[in-house]
Amino acid sequence: MSGEAARVAGCVFCEQAGGRLVFEGARLRVIHAVEAGFPAFYRVVWNAHRPELSDLSREERAHCMDAVAEVEQCLRDTLAPTKINVAALGNMVPHLHWHVIARFDWDSHFPAPFWAAAQRAAPAARVAQVEALLSAAEAAMATRLAAL
Ligand SMILES: [Zn+2]
To answer: How many C-beta atoms surround the C-beta of residue 140 within 10 A?
Structure first.
């Protein structure tokens, strides 16, 4: 289960970073995703093409989930969100990635999941407040992820 798998043609996470790179390690990376209404939407992407969490070794799995928890902790510490959502779907892109999303009671979909229909427009001033804190959150992520 070690080593890099061949890149899979047509897979967005094999062919490109998939978003703005926040951290890049040997096994995984963290990207900031641009998703309307969600200013603090991150993805932890396993670098090698693996469809399912259970494709990883036990040790790789632990590393992956520790990374998810570190991203979550940095978002909590910096943004004080109402909730953090963590999800692995991969129906559209079957390359292991975890969504880690800071949710706010004012966001466009709250309390519905991010894949549901929007319930309102997110207030621009609130979104801007969160965006102003992202660089601090991301600096903390880079430090903590490098230490894993
Ligand atoms: Zn892939």
So the answer is: 17
Instruction: Give the CATH number for residue 91.
Output: 3.30.428.10
Amino acid 5 reads A
- C-alpha span between 42 and 40 (Å, rounded): 6
Other residues' Cβ atoms within 10 Å of the Cβ of residue 21: 13
* 7 located within any domain: no
- At which residue do the structure tokens 């510490």 appear? 77
What is d(CA 59, CA 16) in angstroms, rounded to the nearest whole number? 26
**pTM: predicted TM-score of the whole model, two decimal places:** 0.94
- 17 Cα–ligand 1 center, Å: 10
Counting the structural domains of the chain, the total is 1
CA of 43 to the centre of ligand 1 (A): 14
pLDDT in tens, 57-82: 999 999 999 999 999 999 999 999 99
CA of 68 to the centre of ligand 1 (A): 19
Q: Which domain, by its residues, includes 46?
A: 12-146
Answer whether residue 18 is part of any domain: yes
